[in-house]
Amino acid sequence: MDKSKSVKTQLMILFGENTDIEGIDVKNACFGGTQALFGAIDWIKANHETDDRLAIAVMADIAVYAADGPRCTGGAGAIALLIGPDAPIVFEDGLRACYMKNSWDFYKPIGGIASEFPLVEGEESLNCYLSALDACYATYKKKTNKILQKDRSLSDFHSILFHSPFYKLVQKAFARLVFTDYVAGQISLPNEQKLEKFKDKELSDTCSDREFASETRIASLHLLEEKVEPNMTLNRRIGNMYTPSLYAELITLLSRIEDVQSFNNQRVLLFSYGSGLASAMFSVVFNITPETTSAFEKMRTVSKNAINRLDQREKHSPEVYNEIMMTRQKLVERKGAGIPSASLNGISQHLFPGTYYLVKIDDKSRRVYDQVQ
Amino acid sequence: MDKSKSVKTQLMILFGENTDIEGIDVKNACFGGTQALFGAIDWIKANHETDDRLAIAVMADIAVYAADGPRCTGGAGAIALLIGPDAPIVFEDGLRACYMKNSWDFYKPIGGIASEFPLVEGEESLNCYLSALDACYATYKKKTNKILQKDRSLSDFHSILFHSPFYKLVQKAFARLVFTDYVAGQISLPNEQKLEKFKDKELSDTCSDREFASETRIASLHLLEEKVEPNMTLNRRIGNMYTPSLYAELITLLSRIEDVQSFNNQRVLLFSYGSGLASAMFSVVFNITPETTSAFEKMRTVSKNAINRLDQREKHSPEVYNEIMMTRQKLVERKGAGIPSASLNGISQHLFPGTYYLVKIDDKSRRVYDQVQ
Q: N or C end of chain A, less CB within 10 A?
């Protein structure tokens, strides 16, 4: 059987003439994927009694920076999550804690700047991320108190997953959660006397405090190695994928599970952040039953395969990467209108069979795609 | 009490530091508002057992065309729908029929074209709208058959509301639905012998057929005057508002209701369309009970006020309008970066107290707003 034809047929079923598919693009920097996920969960809960379809949240991004920006931190990744009732991973009801604020920490301006590269205010963006984290964790605790009549702490979770632009920020973020638990009297730490003096400070004043960062890092290192670091394999080897970043950690976590049964009822805490800003903290619990085991096994297999595929990547020099980026940039800025991108650099040779790729942007700004045979 | 301060305080509560608000912008031409509405409905259904907050779907657009485009058809409007459980207007479960297709009928290109004006393929866009309508109505009928064990027809609805770029298209659209009912044997029409010859044609081949349009118009005129025309007051006097367009008809309908009790259990069919394209047909039923009457009365009052406010508008010449548009265009294209828009044309004098308006776009493309005192 011709494999590329099979892919085409599937896509036509999904995107053909008579489609009754609901949902449109959801965009908000790195948070867009999480909102799509929330929408998919709500759709299933609200509609599954009258509609037996499943929902898909597809998270994909063009995570690229200008040549003079932090280009080396950008990565490429896409993740799709299939959402349905009675699943092996359950999103906990009522425990979505959001925080939204107007900020200009990282954004893609429209009008006048004919480029797809973002403007990044590095320091501002880190502070926004950490403040959003603090606010979400405070709200998450309040919600657990209201719904479960107990303030949850990090000890309730097998793993804590974070949106991860780069690992250092995740370390810093995790350390703040540990400190928050410590102030609430929910945890004992090795260097408590060093942390004492930060207890009376406003948490928001500590975002750029180096001593605070250093001491909370020391305080949280043993927990970091247990609950955070083991789930970073994909993120550390790929770089920032934007929307899929947080969910790549879930995939790494799934790939690590050996004793399936022992994982039943384990909880995971997730923190999603998108500049601008939109953020949320929420939790999932594993639900391994005779009915869900087969789906869970599939998830594990897919996840292990994702990790294994890291070694199949082709290595290219920064010069080649920059050249490919320049081709794309010309296309997007319409300086290359009419010139097929793939033929310019032979990009299509490096794509999987069945992949759609941008061929040109015509004189009416319409995008034309072709498919790898 | 200073009224502008009161507005500011409310906004700070909504958008201040400690916000646990969920949801981000949803954009897809004129369909974005409907998707936000669907998301709000699903959110309430999925979360109201653990969360007593309500949801708001805010629909607002910059419905403007270039000076050489169909500028006279553009209007300005914004509508917010408050969604909660046990409401006087109920969205019917399982009866959302969607149709999505890739098309370039009307779009705002990014990259290279530093303008917010859309590119419009007039003929193409009308055909897309009508094909989407046909597909949604076919799917809607199928769903009623599956869920209610009966194919609904237009006779089941008090009113039919359409996304309305201009009224002629709505007339054409309604006529097609009437023809579809006729082919299904669900309705008798005055000029049946003239319609007979179109029965065997593919419906999709009739989109640009003038004779078809003319005969179905004659066939449907009496029903148009009963179920469509009376709800067009806002749309005809404002012009195309994009996302709020469909919901402006719902407001007109609410403003018309005199005998509240007789409206209980009445149904309304809605068709939403966004170029690109995304579309949906769905239905609501009025639920007037002792518990919902007070909320329903509020809706009626708000709706009547909206109609009355039409007469409070200020009249300006096309020249003044074009001048204001040019100020805005300069700002958006960043040619006027740093120049306050409001002071250029005294725009702020014409805004309600409390209104936020764009003051400038700075050299980093950040937008700065001020508020009318």
A: N
Phi, psi angle pair for B215, to nearest 5°: -70, -40
Strands A159-162 and A267-274, sheet pairing: parallel
Interface test with B, best of A13, A22, A364 (most B CBs within 10 A): A22
Judged by average pLDDT, the poorest of A28-42, A69-83, B167-181, B230-244 is A69-83
A342: containing domain? 321-373
Residues A261 and A339 in one domain: no
Q: In a 10 Å sphere around its CB, with 0-12 CB exposed, 13-18 middle and 19+ buried, how is residue B130 labelled?
A: buried
Task: Clarify whether residues A307 and A340 are in a common domain.
Answer: no
Q: How many CB atoms lie within 10 A of CB B311?
A: 7
The chain-wide mean pLDDT, for chain A, equals 88
Q: What is the pLDDT of residues A130-173, one digit of tens each?
A: 999 999 999 999 999 999 999 999 999 999 999 999 999 999 99
Do A63 and A120 belong to one domain? yes
Establish if B260 belongs to a structural domain: yes
pTM to 2 decimal places: 0.92
Q: Which amino acid is residue B277, in one-letter code?
A: L
Nearest-CB residue to B51 (from A18, A94, A366): A94
In a domain, A8, yes or no: no
* Unique residue bearing structure tokens 């201040």: B16
Indicate whether B262 and B229 sit together in one domain: yes
For A17-56, write each residue's pLDDT tens digit.
Answer: 557 899 999 988 999 999 999 999 999 999 999 999 999 9
Q: Does B292 touch chain A (CB under 8 A)?
A: no
Indicate the residue among B268, B289, B312 that finishes a domain: B312
Q: What is the ipTM of this complex?
A: 0.91
Residue of A nearest to B144 (CA): A50
A chain contacts of residue B113, beta-carbon cutoff 8 Å: 334, 365
Tell me the mean pLDDT in the region B304-331: 88
CA–CA dist B21, A124 (Å, integer): 22
Residue B134's nearest CA partner among B97, B185, B94, B159 is B97
Q: Which residues pair with A91 in a beta bridge?
A: A284
pLDDT computed for residue A345 by the predictor: 54
Same-domain status, A127 and A268? yes
Which residues from chain A sit within 8 angstroms of residue B333, using beta carbons? 111-112
d(CA B101, CA B134): 13
Query: What per-residue confidence (pLDDT) applies to B14?
Result: 46
- The tokens for A335 are 């300086």
User: Are residues B160 and B298 located together in one domain of the fold?
Assistant: yes
Give the pLDDT mean for A330-352: 63
Residues in B touching A338 (Cβ below 8 Å): none
In A87-173, DSSP assigns E strands to: 89-91, 97-100, 106-107, 119-120, 159-162
User: Into how many domains does chain B fold?
Assistant: 2
Beta pairing partners, A162: A271
Q: Do the beta carbons of residue A210 and residue A168 sit within 8 Å?
A: no
List the single residue in A25, A47, A334 with the smallest CB-CB distance to B27.
Answer: A25
